[in-house]
């Protein structure tokens, strides 16, 4: 982790905080974290990729870490398309024509969207839990009770009590998610706190709450992203070379690999990573995550 450098750059509507390591002229790997995690999910991944010649870029998503909005007037919007727009804007700011895009949780969804809508910018895709592109119409449909139970925090966040509770207890909340999503991951307090500092971002609660409320159709996004969301609502196929991964002990809600295999129409492979690996796969099984990136890149 000490080998990477923390930097800031204006990109789109954000002043993006990001970690970078590896040769400046190397093939780019854009690594995207989820919630409630941060760039340190890739602390072991980054040096391994850098050693293979990759230029590794790991941004804090909007609402996390040192990423800030350039304007107080910009809506604190967490809808799925805007996070992908952020990723492409960062690539533009860094003058990256193409990158391997890889992630988990929100980061996997974002990587999927970049691959689906901007395939010319995506040299390959590594997506934990596969195809996660959603739409509000589907989000409004009720699930069987056992499935709804897994999304308890989504319903909590739909209430003002939930927003206030998350704001007041964000560290305890995040630790509970880490424990339930990765039941066999024996992380220590220092590892958790290193990431938990990212949740002190002044926009964090607003972005998280908007993200989950948007999914259920309880709030709207920004009109300029309506066309992108309409395209995503059609569940577009992904044609770039792809490897999907799933931990054998992922305690978070996730689709079965058979449910999304046909969404990947290019070179495709799915790998289940054994050994009690949970939701935060890059941090729990960094070697497997790196191997997928190397393979999708043809190394």
Automatic annotation (TrEMBL):
Keywords: Hydrolase. The keyword Hydrolase applies. SUPFAM superfamilies: alpha/beta-Hydrolases. Pfam families: Abhydrolase_1 (PF00561). Residues 30-158 form the AB hydrolase-1 domain. One of its GO terms (molecular function) is hydrolase activity. InterPro entries: AB_hydrolase_1, AB_hydrolase_fold, AB_hydrolase_sf, Epox_hydrolase-like. This is Alpha/beta hydrolase. It comes from Leifsonia tongyongensis. The lineage of its organism: Bacteria, Bacillati, Actinomycetota, Actinomycetes, Micrococcales.
């Amino acid at each position: 982790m000490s080998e990477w450098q923390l930097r800031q750059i204006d990109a789109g509507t954000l002043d993006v905080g990001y970690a970078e390591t590896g040769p400046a002229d190397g093939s780019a790997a854009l690594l995207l974290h989820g919630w409630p995690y941060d760039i340190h999910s890739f602390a072991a991944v980054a040096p391994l990729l850098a050693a293979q010649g990759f230029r590794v870029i790991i941004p804090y998503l909007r609402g996390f870490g040192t990423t800030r909005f350039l304007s107080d007037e910009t809506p604190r919007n967490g809808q799925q398309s805007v996070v992908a727009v952020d990723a492409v804007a960062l690539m533009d700011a860094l003058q990256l024509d193409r990158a391997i895009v890889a992630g988990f949780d929100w980061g996997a969804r974002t990587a999927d969207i970049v691959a689906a809508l901007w395939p010319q910018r995506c040299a390959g895709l590594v997506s934990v839990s596969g195809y996660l592109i959603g739409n509000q119409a589907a989000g409004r449909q009720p699930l069987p009770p056992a499935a709804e139970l897994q999304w308890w925090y989504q319903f909590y966040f739909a209430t003002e009590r939930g927003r206030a509770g998350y704001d007041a207890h964000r560290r305890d909340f995040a630790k509970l998610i880490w424990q339930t999503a990765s039941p066999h991951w024996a992380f220590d307090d220092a590892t958790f706190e290193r990431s938990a500092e990212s949740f002190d971002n002044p926009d964090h609660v607003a972005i998280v709450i908007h993200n989950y409320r948007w999914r259920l159709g309880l709030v709207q996004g920004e009109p300029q992203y309506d066309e992108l969301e309409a395209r995503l609502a059609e569940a577009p196929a992904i044609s770039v070379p792809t490897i999907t991964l799933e931990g054998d002990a992922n305690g978070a809600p996730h689709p079965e690999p058979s449910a999304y295999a046909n969404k990947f129409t290019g070179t495709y492979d799915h790998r289940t990573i054994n050994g009690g690996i949970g939701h935060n796969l890059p941090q729990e099984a960094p070697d497997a995550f790196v191997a997928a990136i190397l393979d999708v890149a043809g190394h």
